[in-house]
Amino acid sequence: RRIDRSTWRIVRAGPAPAPRPAAPALIAAAPAEDQPAAEIIVTASKRDIPLLRYAGVVETLDNRAFTSGEAASGTATLLARVASLSSTHAGNGRKKLFIRAIADSGVAGPTQATTGQYLGDMRLNYAAPDPDLKLYDIGRVEVLEGPQGTLYGAGSLGGIIRIMPNAPNLGETGGQMSAGLSAVQHGDVGGDLSATLNLPIVAEKIALRIVGYGVQESGYIDDANRHKDDVNRVRTWGGRAALRFAPDDDWTIDLNAVYQHIDGDDAQYATRSVGRLQRASAVAQPYGSDYLLGNVRIERQWDNLRFVSSTGYVRHRLDESYDATQPDGAPAIFRQHNDVDIFSTENRLVRDLDNGLGWILGASYLRSSSNLYRSLASFGTTPSIQPEVIPGVPLYGRGMPAAATGVRNSVKEATLFGEASFEPVKGLIATFGGRLTNSRLSGAALDPVAALSAADVARAEAQADRSETIFLPSASLLTDAIPGVTLYARFQQGFRPGGLAVDDQRVRRFQNDRVSTFEAGFRKGVPGRDTLALSANIAYTDWRDIQADVTDRIGLPTTANIGDGRIYTGEARIVARPTARLTLDGSIIYNDSRLTQPAQFLRALSYNGRSLSLPNVANLSGRIAFDYRAPIGDATDFHLSGSARYIGKSRLGVGPILGQTQGDYVDTSLTASLTRGPLQYSFSLTNLLDSNGNRFSLGTPFDLRTDYYTPLRPRTLRIGIDFAF
Predict the structure, then answer these.
(1) ∠ CA(387), CA(389), CA(395), 5° rounding?
(2) What helix, strand, coil percent values describe the chain, rounded to 5?
(3) Cβ atoms within 10 A of the Cβ of 591, count?
(4) Is the pLDDT of residue 478 over 60?
(5) pTM
(6) Which CATH number characterizes residue 486's domain?
(7) Is residue 632 a part of any domain in this protein?
(8) Which of 207, 264, 451, 524 lies at a 20 to 30 A Cα distance from 628?
(9) CB of 5 closer than 8 Å to CB of 246
């Protein structure tokens, strides 16, 4: 199944697939009624397993799923389309993403993410939030529910998100440009621009593909205290470049680079007591990030054997600020700067056989370091004599910063992994796998305050400097004994390494955590191909020594092991195609999570079971959507899609201090487009009902009031045009 003379990765395959270009059309046409049936291939399995032979829950979005306006929204588009995916909504580049109710906290601290994110074969993040890359010129996105410890290792407790950019096309010159103008009710205007160019340098041997973009998201939060309107504007610009070299039919070498800059003028939250879409802050709370990625990928193909080597580096810089003003005190601001560097390499050998059989063997190495710097500044005219905001940190006044204790965490991981599927009896596929990881952990205090003794620092650093070896097994059974229906059961584990955190200006160690998930489900039909596709899944997750980002008594983010917990999850999805032009999609997810064995410092809260539910994942969520595509005349295609997603209630964190509720709202969208030749005109409307639903209940951690809320972006209209050449 060859995509072209130099590319063997399969995205979709029909019963009799024909050769096609490496990159799909830049503007996809509406499907004809006689389009051949397609079979979805789960490439994130690293073994190119057909969907009907994959034992687990996966959702795929191909390039036809995104208009340029949706690409400009980045992760927000994935959140709107994937029912099992949730977020903290703290702002672009600051979100924590969760899959399958594996959520630790809404507070951003030094702990590793529970959801793994990848661009192709390259890890995007480790001890940092979602980088929120824009989705321009993306061929495919796959979301695999977790754990995915066998194939992806640490930080895939909830699952993984894998974004597959379009590869350079070795045979055709082409490109695309897009522009959009948006207006937000109760806010101002924004816009987006993008350009993509595919340029063969040596015919059928070398090609370059470049993507560039700029997005301004309009503000809609007013600050009554500072007399400023629409303060929460966000500007994002960046791009990608990919160079493909295919010396012959068997070898492919890809060089990839990504850069993105995010600049947020102010925080996204409002205060209900001040008014709708308003708050009263003493200072602006800007944030921003710089994200840089470089990757080299080499692939060698034999008949049914594939070797893949991927090596890369990530540099992620994240700046955040919070209003630290105290009652009757001068305006003050707390700043946090996180430097994250990741080097990773993976080499694997894969044998792909029919019907999902085959095996994979691999080895990987990762080195990650995170340096978290903190400071506090007062804007009074003289040094403050008020009680200290942070013990041991003075307030100099006049905006002069004083360092607060920060922390450095580093980890080195060496891993061997493998997985094999075989058919012990006809109609039954058994899969077994395992991952052996040795982690070398170390940590240190950065700029410790005078109140922190050298003995405390040395003790914590000695505890952090350690080595751990962990084995993660996996097993699954799958059968199609019932004609047209796939039944499966799976067991898999995942983990996150420990590290150091600052708690009340003391440096303390937190331990690694581990999840074990048992799940069972069925699948009938392929979404988007068959007239009716059904799937359902139930899962039980046991989570030990849960790492959670919480707040200390001062209000600063810290990380602690909060105890053991369990999660029950049930989900179902139905996709119907009553006609070749119309697709209807509906899904529902129920989560029941509890902290069953709270840590000592939380046991006093056990009188209230609700306060000990795990945070940030709604107990009930659902989504309904439709997609209609049809030709108008001989040269024009019409596309109309819409969706409504319900997000149920959840809690910000564990315990009464972070026990504020959030959620219980409906988000809606409608998109229409006309494609005529190289031109596409699009119209979209989001939050049709202009709902003021609360997505996230955290404002500034220095004032844990209960009326903070992060509202849905108000009703937004966007008009866009795309031109392909």
Answers:
(1) 80
(2) 5, 55, 35
(3) 26
(4) yes
(5) 0.92
(6) 2.40.170.20
(7) yes
(8) 524
(9) yes
Residue 336 domain flag: yes
Residue 366 is which amino acid? L
Number of structural domains (the chain) is: 1
Report d(CA 66, CA 75) in Å as an integer: 12
> Which residues lie below 8 Å from residue 470, measured CB to CB, with a gap of 6+?
436, 437, 439, 495, 512, 514
Q: Give the single-character DSSP code of 612.
A: G
Question: How big is the CA angle at 566 (ends 564 and 569), to the nearest 5 degrees?
Answer: 155
- The neighbour count for residue 526, using CB atoms within 10 Å, is 17
Rounded to an integer, what is the distance from CA 244 to the centroid of its chain? Answer: 27
Structure tokens at 585: 């999609």
pLDDT at site 25: 45
What is the identity of the amino acid at 137? D
In whole angstroms, give the CA distance from residue 568 to residue 551.
Answer: 27
Assign 3-class secondary structure to 642-697.
EEEEEEEEEECCCCCCCCCEEEEEEEEEEEEEEEECCEEEEEEEECCCCCCCEEEC
Q: Is there a contact between 476 and 488 (Cβ–Cβ < 8 Å)?
A: yes
Q: Could you tell me if residue 490 is inside a domain?
A: yes
Sequence letter at residue 226: R
Query: What token pair was written down for 235?
Result: 């500007």
Residue 244 structure tokens:
């493909």
Burial class (CB in 10 A: 0-12, 13-18, 19+), 347: middle
CA distance 95 to 118: 16
* Burial zone of 381 (CB within 10 Å; 0-12 exposed, 13-18 middle, 19+ buried): exposed
Q: How far apart are CA 46 and CA 348, in angstroms?
A: 9
The residue assigned the tokens 């708050």 is 279
Mean pLDDT (whole number) for 448-454 = 63
- Is the model's pLDDT at 696 over the cut of 70? yes
- In a domain, residue 68? The reply is yes
Structural domain containing residue 82 = 12-724
Measured distance CA(615)–CA(119) in Å, rounded: 28
- Give the amino acid at 105: S
Element spanning 648, H or E: strand 636-651
Confidence at residue 448, expressed as pLDDT on a 0 to 100 scale: 80
**Could you give the CA distance from residue 59 to residue 518 in angstroms, rounded to a whole number?**
19
